[in-house]
Give the backbone structure.
Amino acid sequence: MLEVVFTDGTRCTVAMENRLFGPVFESLRDPDLFSRATVDEFGAICWPNGADLAPDALYEDALACSSGL
């Protein structure tokens, strides 16, 4: 799970298990590596192994979450 909060106050807890596939993302199943997430200057969530998540996709998830969809 990843708690995301955007500058407009939109927030949501995003389930990540369905996103962790492929060579770069599968290694994020290690809780130690997953916990080392940071946010870069563009708002992308990044990990030391080079994996990243675009903020626009997460924002769409957060909007769906906050509207109850």
